[in-house]
Amino acid sequence: xxxxxxxxxxxxxxxxxxxxxxxxxxxxxxxxxxxxxxxxxxxxxxxxxxxxxxxxxxxxxxxxxxxxxxxxxxxxxxxxxxxxxxxxxxxxxxxxxxxxxxxxxxxxxxxxxxxxxxxxxxxxxxxxxxxxxxxxxxxxxxxxxxxxxxxxxxxxxxxxxxxxxxxxxxx
Length: 171
Description:
53% of the residues lie in helices and 11% in strands. The protein is an alpha/beta fold. Strands 2-3-1-4-5 form a 5-stranded parallel β-sheet, sandwiched between helices. α1 (19-30) crosses α8 (154-167) and α2 crosses α4 (57-71). The two termini are 16 Å apart.
C-alpha cells in the first residue's frame, strides 16, 4: 500500500469513545478529508438500528466491510465503527496503517450513551462493558497509539495526536 493509497490515521475504539468527534477534529487540524464509515453506511442504507432490525447484524457487517475497505484506500483520517475491527480482513489491512485507539471509562461513556439508539447496547452500560471487554485485546493489538477520551478536551487530544503524527514523520 503506497502512502497515497492509505489513510493518514485510522481511529478505532468502543462505541461512545468519541472516535468520530476526535477524528473530525484531527482531520480539520491537518486540513485533510475525514471519513466516518458508519456515516457512509447510513447514507447508503439508512439508520443503523433500522439495518439491524430489518437485515440483522451479519448483513450490517457485510455492508460495513465494503465501506471500511473503500475508506482504507483514501488519504484521510478515517473513523471506524466500534465493531469494524472484528473482521479479519479489516484487521489485516489495519496492520500496515497508523491506528489510534480511543479509550473511554464506563463512567464517561454512560453519559454519552444517554438516549442514543445503538443496536448492540440494548442493556445500556452493561452491554457496553461486555462489548468493550470482548474487543479490548483486538483494539490493543491493532493500535499504534492509545489515548483516553474520557475527560480530556477533544481539541487538546487532537493537537496531541497531530504532534505525534508529525513526530512520527507521517505528515
